[in-house]
Batch of 4 targets.
Target 1
Amino acid sequence: MTAESVSTVSAERRTPKIVTPRRPAGTVYRGREGMWSWVLHRITGVAIYFFLLVHILDTSLVRVSPEAYNAVINSYKTPIMGLGEIALVAAIGLHALNGLRIIAIDFTGFGTRHQKAMFWVAIGLWVVLLAGFVPRQLMHIFGGA
Amino acid sequence: MSVIDSPRSTPQRKASRFNIEKWGWIYMRFSGVILVVLIFGHLFVNLVAGEGVKAIDFAFVAGKLANPFWIVWDMLLLWLALIHGANGMRSIVNDYARNKRLRLILLGAIGVSTAALLILGTLVLTTFDPCIGLTPDSALVEICEAQ
């Protein structure tokens, strides 16, 4: 009896069950919080950079004439550009919050230990920031004269 | 007996007095913290407060630039943000532009555009004149004609 059960156990051990993974695993690195925060930081950084180049040029028109400046700045008040400003604030907010996370990681042991949690904290604060800004911006852009 | 091969590792680079990568790294973090304050302040005053973006016109800017506080604020924004952005783009170009000539062209373009925009922006902020294109109904008529 005892010998029999022992042999059964060892037989089971010799043929482990192979579970088919639900999705392909181990073939593609899909990244974790750290990689995706890095990707988002690059994309938002480049987008903000090109806006900054344009923004310095359009603001410089205040040195040319009020008409020239007003004509260009009025294009920032159209519905499409109003939505663009939401995208801009979203990009800046994410870059800023993740940037503070990077600084905390680089300069504190706490930051290094909790870098994953801090990514989600940054995302949470970003959602709060946009929850405050987006309705306000929509009121400015689409609200009456 | 064969001759022992030379070590495969290249000789250590001589430590130079000024390490641009180190100072770039430090600059990104220190300017970043300041920019968080400056940019969110800028966004609040220009997009959130009052009528938001619809309130911005020449008179709005003239009103802000009448106060040295905003001139200093905008000057810091200009220099800190543009150099922060240019240094970030430099990192990205160094990462992805594998062809040496392409890399030098892109780095040169970043350098030239950054210098040009810093000079332009600084001149605009230091020589701003609210009296250009003065209309008779402007609130500034008396002040401007006294000059």
Note: Residues 79 and 118 of chain B are 7 Å apart (CA to CA).
Target 2
Amino acid sequence: MRLSFQNFRLMILLAILAMGCSHNTPSAIPEEWKASGEIRIYEVFGMDCPGCHGGLENQLTALDGVDGAKADWVQKQVTVWVSQGNLISDEVIHEAIKRANFTPGDRIK
Amino acid sequence: MITLKKQYLTAIIGMFIFVTILNAGGISVDAGLTPAENRWIVRYQARQMERTGTNIMDVDVAMTTDMHVFNLAYGVRPQLTLMIMQGWANRKSDMMGQASGRNDMTLMAKYRLLRVNTRETTLGVAATIKLLIPTGEEPFTTDYWSVSPGIFLSQRWNTWALDASTEFRFNDLFDNRDDSLQRGWEISTNCAIARQIALGDNSAFSFAPVLEMTGSVTQPDMPAHVSFNFRESMIFLSPGMKLTYQSLILEVLWQYPLWQDIPDSAMEYSSKGLVGIRYMF
């Protein structure tokens, strides 16, 4: 295969298709989160592109008591949706952030 | 004397360097620190390389090699990543004809030695080791095992990044050939600089101009006439770009040979092209 225009076009098409299949992670907090449970925001250091979001979010949503997580590499923070009545500690959240190879900062909210 | 065209070229290269002396992340070589625990990374790259020269009859000859390279990486621990790489190649040569086949398989481990994240910067150091297994088909296999220990350095400063790596390849681990043959070695180094620019209001999208510099020195097998490794040294300068949307990365790179020192009988390297796609689960 040569890196011809047709092949390049095919790669772009595949990329667009894959983007369409990707889960959506807008920076805004979903209404569903605001309706119930607790929303916490933590500073996170070490993220350098949108590709970092998924690894961090996977670590956090794997925790019992965490229903959702949204990372933001520009704001250097992650928003965590904790189940209603769950008393998961900040230390447990911090450990999950470290497993994603990042460093937790202050809890903002 | 610098012509007007050269002035424009110098200005464009200068602007590119100025723009990219902000954040990086290599494309042509494995770059980036170890990913999160339990994270899978799937990567595909299409590469094309051209070589040109003249034969003993002083006739122009050329060789084009297309490669399809698949990578699968997994974060076993936050500090340890394992990777497997397999490529397929198709070669068209005026002198040797056409050939297609599987390349040797590469296994790699990357171990994080240091990672310090602060509000403004990230500094990381990792050790790497690659094992080349001779599973390829003729004429794309080396027919022997090789091991390449290396070191990787990463620095982030806000949206700027600098990655550098170097590795040394020991060929023919199990000494398959007779004692009269002394295998050559190879040392290679790569440096990449880039800037990650967020696009739109949503931090899920970013664009990164990348500038890489790659160099390698190959020590030939001795005696040279039975060698697989030929004496060659080269430096490539490579502008490129990465487009990231959430867990998906599209990457394009063009490598220009800045300097090369190869035997008179060998064809010179022309530019190399690379288009890749990466998804992280």
Note: Residues 4-20 of chain B form the longest helix (17 residues).
Target 3
Amino acid sequence: MIEILSATALATVQDLGRAGALRWGVGSSGAMDPLALAAGNLLLGNDEGAAAVEVPVFPFQVRFAADCAFAVTGADCAARLDHMPLPPWWACEARAGQVLQLGVPQQGGAWRASRAYLCLAGGVDVPEVLGSRSTQLRGAFGGLEGRALRRGDSLCAAAAGAGLRATGFGLVPPALALPLQADGVPAVRVLPAAEYGHYTEASRAAFWSQPWKITPQSDRYGYRLAGIPLEATDDIEMRSHGIVPGVIQVPPSGQPIVQMCDAQPSGGYPKIGTVIEADRWRLGQAPIGSSIRFVETSWDEAIAALDRNRQWLDEARRLVELHRGSRAN
Amino acid sequence: MNMDHVQQLSRWLEATDIDLLELQGPGEQLSLRHNGKRVEVVSHDIAGDGPAPAVVTAASVGLFLHRHPLRAEPLAAPGAAVRAGQVVGLLRIGALLLPVTAPHDGIVVSVLEQDGAVVGYGTPLVEFQVPGGQA
């Protein structure tokens, strides 16, 4: 069991999301960096989709009330267990009473990221709602009482102690094995969407060629971007229709909004593109104030990119299982 | 490990093309050399209460890293004070990172292999100064 010591809000329990609930008007929620969540879980021998704590605001502190194996992945936040520094993307074991501190993410390193994941042996044990343990903030269900974590909250590990003695190793983050940049700026791949053709040629060119700044009005619901405004060739009036995370809407201001994990399931703004599922983790980790580029892609490339993510996870799992197996003998 | 086990291992080794067999267990170490004709016991140490080793060796084959791939600064530069169990280097095997850990509280004296060097099992990696002991 862990006790939250930090007063900073916005940390939530997340798994890989509530798939299949959009038809009831329930958004997906889930980890903003699903690769980091899956990697943290496989370091512990958990199911890849076990629930973990997503931490977007630092410093963040928890106290272990009982011995428990854990892993920290995502942003490199100079984790410390009591006074012992831990490498990033690392599995470890805590003894009862020890305090884990996650500091402000290091921005000088090889990967700028903004969210850390604290995975526990067996996963965070909260009830499943509509097939997921993810916190659905808008609907106030899932996770811990449907809300962000507060100081004094306690969370249980589903299999505390199960991973003990099979820890003390880590993974090279997938950001280094799967880099994606355009002119030195972190990039995400985008499929043109239904209303793409309604923007001027200059705006379409600018959409692909200019860096888009992630404004402070960006969170789990959506990222509001700033750049040269996109201009439509005609008035696009649309009724509300279903949208999914990754959709890039253009409100009348011409400044795009990328829908993220807590996006509402419908909207009426025109859609200029969609960030492919395989690259949403890149955007989910991009810090406020940083810039990103959109790179045009195709359906086939989007599927191939998902396959490459899958291959990275499969290879990481194979190596981790080999290592855990050698330690068990 | 008793002498029967050593003799059994020696017989097995004689039947192979392997030149050297090293076995390390808790508090015990055995080296057998096969010179083509017969097998000799090179060393057979049963650890006593002597000082902990001041040099940490590679526990696996891998690429020895001074720094975590995400970071610019080394995990433990010479002169750094480290605690027992602290990660002072890494062995990389594909995406897997294994720790090179300090055996006890002390000071890092020197890092014995280049950053990125391919190392084998048992390669000396990091030398420590143990307070009150010998480097």
Note: The longest strand of chain B covers residues 39-46.
Target 4
Amino acid sequence: MQTLQLLWAGIAQGMIYALVAFGYNITFSTSKILNFSLGNVLMLGGVTGFVLYMTRGVPFAGALAGVIAVGAVGGVLVQKLAVEPSLRKKSQHAWILATLAVGIVLRNGAEVFWSTDDFKMRSPLGDAPLRVGGAGGIGIYPQEILIILVSLAIVMTVEMLKSRTLLGKAVMAVSEDKETASLMGIDQKRVILFSFSLSAAIAAVGGLLVAPITLVSATMGTVLGVKAYSASIIGGLESGYGTIAGGLIIGLSESLTARFVSTGYKDVPGFLFLIVLLLVKPSGLFGKRTIRKV
Amino acid sequence: MSDGPQNGEPRPPLARRLTPLLLLLPLLVPLLVENQYYVHGILGRILVYTLLVASLDLVVGYIGDVSIGHAGFFAIGAYTVAVLTAPPALNGDSAIAFFPQWPFLVALALGVALSAIAGFVLGFPALRSSGPYLAVITIAYGLIIFTFINEQEAWTNGTKGVTLAPLRLGGVSLGGNNYIFVVYPFLVAVLWALRNIGKSFWGRAFEAIKNSAVAAACTGISRAYYKVSAFVLSAAVAGLAGGLFSQLDSYVAPNTFSYNLSVEFLIALIFGGTRSILGNLIGVTIFVFLPDLFTAFADSRLMVYGILLLVVLFFLPDGVAGVLRSLWGRLAGTGLARERHALAAAASHVDVFASATARQGDALVLEGVTMRFGGLTAVNDLSLTIPRGSVRGLIGPNGSGKSTTVNVLTGVYQQTAGRITSFGHDVGSLTTAQRARFGLARTFQNLQLFQDLTALQNVLVGLHQSFRSNLYQVALWTPAARREEWGAKVRAYALLRFVGLESQAFEKASNLSYGQARLLEIARALAVSPGLLLLDEPAAGLTSAEIEAINAIVRRIKAAGITVLLIEHHMEMVMAISDEVTVLDFGRKIAEGSPGAVQADPAVIEAYLGKHPTAIGAGAQ
């Protein structure tokens, strides 16, 4: 029963990783760029949600709208202030450093202008676990159900919109070939900007979702961001649904290691799996292999 | 000292040769200043961290991979020294069961060795992945090491850390301010060796791999060997930095070695400027010093760093050191004029083809070579023989398989079927780099120059296999290594003169015009001392005067006994300089023979112009 309980918690945690991993995935698919500040955008979402919902007493729907707005604007700012200028540099990986720097600024900014403490956030659905399977059964937090449902809904909706709508097709065209997409009249800059905004908004919602089952703090996004990044690489950066597989692999390996080995080592198997996987399949489980042309 | 005048290498001016004496100055600091906080706390930290940033520079600056896991190597060095030297008396209630109490230097050497092994292990994923994929591997790697030092309490005492006894030599304490005397010699020796490696053929190989892995392979540079070596070297230096760090405060605890440390030092590196010792030093100094300069920033120091990094990324692409370098170059001159003069004088006696080795057999024999990509057959059952010393043209309409043929010949693609023999040796299963070492050189249709390097350095990369010095000779910059470097420079200059680019010798490849870049590709390929030279559309995009110049160069290459395979669209050029021409269409050979015969061949005319009465009529003229 305890194992089942941990499996459930691992799935909930894994879906948060998957959701943020999906955020990485969205910008990569349009611009081949990962926004490494996404973990701290998640933190920004969590903190904004906390301040609005707990400190200011704004209704949850209002807090959610605020979080989405903060994420969406944040994504635009990251793209305009950090990513776009670094693409003008000849150094190939300037964007990695630029987005990492943005993440550091966000985290330290939250510490300076908000707080360095950890806070408990109430779930809008209540903090009493539902008992499943009678007295010896497992406890399921309503928030965990919310995490799983919302994450799945977001990933599936965006993936569906990508293949069904004109904007989605524009996104796919830009991801295939920027030049040709431009020639077809697609404003690739706006598509890329939109993808950063959407991706950051999703991460911010992730922060609001995860806050009630962890704690809200300025550092809540650092490790989570790294793990979500691992999840997106494991799934394959080109594959939207692959992020769910990646997230679940990391989430479940964590809870199972904590159960059967030790809590201290819970991150190790997931990372080892990542390293070995990339040795065997350099573009992840569902990624595409490209033939280089000379 | 004595080698300078003999072979024409210019001696640096006296002032330049005396500057190393300035290196002794920092040793005065602990003698003159008593303040523990500034000397031991600040200066000591700067020295140790500079080593760490210099190690990161090898991977980030030279190889061009982003590592966010160097804290792991730093931790391996620090914990090896701490655990092996710590006395039980200072770790009374710790979880550590056994205290070996080794001497400091022995433990330090082992720390460096263990860290180097860890770097070797990380080198392999680095061969398969790059960019964001490799970055996540380095993060995972660093975090796994971090977890182990946190959790293996029986070895590391977990989060409570390990306390060391300050170093003593005889009766003298080497702790406190005196620790500078221990760290500084290591720093100077390692940075000097890294600088020597950086400006040698090793450093050029690293940068060649960074700029164009495929072109590096085509000059005989093994990507695996140099990339793994860079990771091993980098990890060893990071391990050394860690070992020295453990004695800085005589205490180590896991929290120092977190993911944040890796990120912060990456920022310090970029801030100061990559591939520059001065840059490493500046980046670290600002990093360590800033909180002291602006105490109000103590809490928001990371925010300041982050913003500073963004500013540097956008306005100073080569970091603070880059700005200083260009200022210094403007004030003091670069000394390039002297070097150019000496090179020109020495190169005037050099015959660029003197070292060509005599080879036996046909230059190239293909038997039934086939290349398929999925369902597409790009080259189909191709057989041809190119006699030694001839110029063979390879033509065909777009998509006929010419470029694929070149890529199969150089091992960029592995052929699906067939045999490739060159000068009597089966080369069909060799790697690209092995084929280049065997004597197969090429140019690239879509230019693959090493953009960050000068024209001269590009040719020097081509000469890579001619270097015989080992890593130790290079690191110590022995007279033999210096002589060899100068000799190669002279030869590279002579090759530039051969193609008419000597006045652009010190110009970055990225600044060359299109025609100059094509010539530089030829010079670099010739530097490999090839038996067979593959020219992949050398005339593409050139003016007729430039094409004339290339024709003349190809004729001289042929006269030197080098076989040439010329892939070209420009018919006039192919017909003018080829002894024989092979025509491909849809991956098959449709004609072969003298230029005149091929031009009249109806199959060739059909392939180019289609089946039409007027087209056939054109062939009858």
Note: The first strand of chain A starts at residue 130 and ends at 132.
